[in-house]
Amino acid sequence: MPQDTYSHGHHSSVVSSHATRTAMDSAAYLMPQLRPGLHILDVGCGPGSITVDLADLVAPGRVTGLDRSEDVLVQARKLAAERGAGNVEFISGNVYDLDFPDDTFDVVHAHQVLQHLTDPVAALHEMRRVTRPGGIVAVRDADYHGMSWYPEVPELAEWMDTYQQIARGNHAEPDAGRRLISWALDAGFSGLVPSSTSWVYATEDRRQWLAGAWSQRILHSAFAEQALERGLASQEKLERMAGGWTRWSAAPDGWFLMPSGELIARP
Prior knowledge:
Blueprint: H1 12-18, H2 23-26, E1 40-43, H3 49-58, E2 63-67, H4 70-83, E3 88-92, E4 105-111, H5 120-129, E5 131-142, E6 148-150, H6 154-169, H7 180-186, E7 190-201, H8 204-220, H9 222-229, H10 235-249, E8 255-266
Parallel strand pairs: 1-2, 1-4, 2-3, 4-5
Antiparallel strand pairs: 5-8, 6-8, 7-8
Helix pairs in contact: 6-10, 8-9, 8-10
């Protein structure tokens, strides 16, 4: 079974960022496919903010959120309790070996997961196995080399190069968005419906939020640990990149575009 290293890790700067995601901003392409009564598996659910939204959309259907980190699942369960989502459960598991019978779910969903895997095709095979005939697998992943920003802050180019090296050093694919169709075809899917949406950070509050999240990740998360351990950056370089993000956020004309590929696939 592949042994994956999560490039972002589970530092609070990462998990708190993921906890702001919603079905509307992260799974809008999937929402027209949903209806009450469906059974959903949310792979790599993290702190559960998207998962709980999906549970609202398919109630009284049930949603199972799956993640390999027990620590982050504690936060997901707390959110579900706060939201009164009685039709969702959170369990630990491995996407390469899902502990469910064949044909269990109507929808299997994974948001920003495949980009971190050493074998995304094997993961899609397993997701396909547990999807019922007539069901769908829905995946959405960022495309890092498709990201663009203004002004041209040199430290952001350094950040991109360093992140690419970290992810590829983990045998993962940071430009996953453009490869979703290729991987799905290799996994035996048909009836592919591709799309793409982007997150845009161009208002003062959005710029400050993104820069705050990434400056903290650069200095304190697995990004920093792996960059230092592998000789990809010195502490001085990390601090310079974090400062570059802060300087970018202060530009009144600042813009950051973060595109993701999306795919609905039928077994």
